[in-house]
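Researcher: Structure prediction, please.
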Amino acid sequence: MSALLALLDEGEFGASERHERSLVDATMRRIASDQESRRARFRMHPAPSEPGRVPGSVRLRDLASVAAAVLLGCAVLWPMLASSREHSRRTACAANLGRAALGFSMYAGDYDGALPSARASFFGGRWWDVGRGEASHSANLYRLITGHYNSLVELACPGNHGAPVRAESPAASDWSSPEQVSYSYQLFGARRPTWGAPARFVVLADKSPVIDRARRGERFDAEANSLNHSGGGQSLLFSDGSTVWASSPRLESGDNIWLPAPMEGSLRPTLTGREQPSGPTDAFVGP
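Model: Predicted structure follows.
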């Protein structure tokens, strides 16, 4: 009886167990094969070597392709970055003029509506002689600083890299040189305008490109824009405290802020540093 059971165990049941093991092994091999196929699909294969090429070397045309891609990227991104920087400068400049407007208002409140002035008259000197005594018109604007109505930082355009942000001396009463001046201030004539007057006029503008060239004895373009913003235009502060961006030195009235009214029709205007506006509403800023 025991022998019969042994035969049955070896026969039917042994064959069944062997069949199950074979099925499991086949299944595992199929799974492993599928996994290897999937890995192969995502595996990167090196390009076939070119005859005579050293394995691992870089081809010149590959470098040229990379360089071209970099140059193309720079060509696209650089104007965007430059535009972004200029927009930031314009925004900062407009904010400066807004703070200057507050300084003008406080000064006018202390001096019966008058615009900042360091002296009673500038006759006898050239108003573009920055840092050379009371003849300098920029010394009039500097009164906002010595009177603590504004700071040097607030009168320094970000586009003027020569503009100081702190005084060279506590006793300073003017900027030291024309290069340090960021803004051109409405010049005074026989009749001085007043802050907040009914007739709106330009009080302050980004530095004139005309006066710098005229002072050096060079010809100038009276239609040029301020260099503070790379010739793109200039920020203007008006006597009512408003600020605007102007893409031309000519106002809506046709008045050119870089020249006195009598000179605006001249084909080759010249300046000596002694000119005056024709009246309180004639926009003529300097230096």
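Model: Confidence is low (pLDDT under 50) at residues 1-14.
Researcher: Thanks, that helps.
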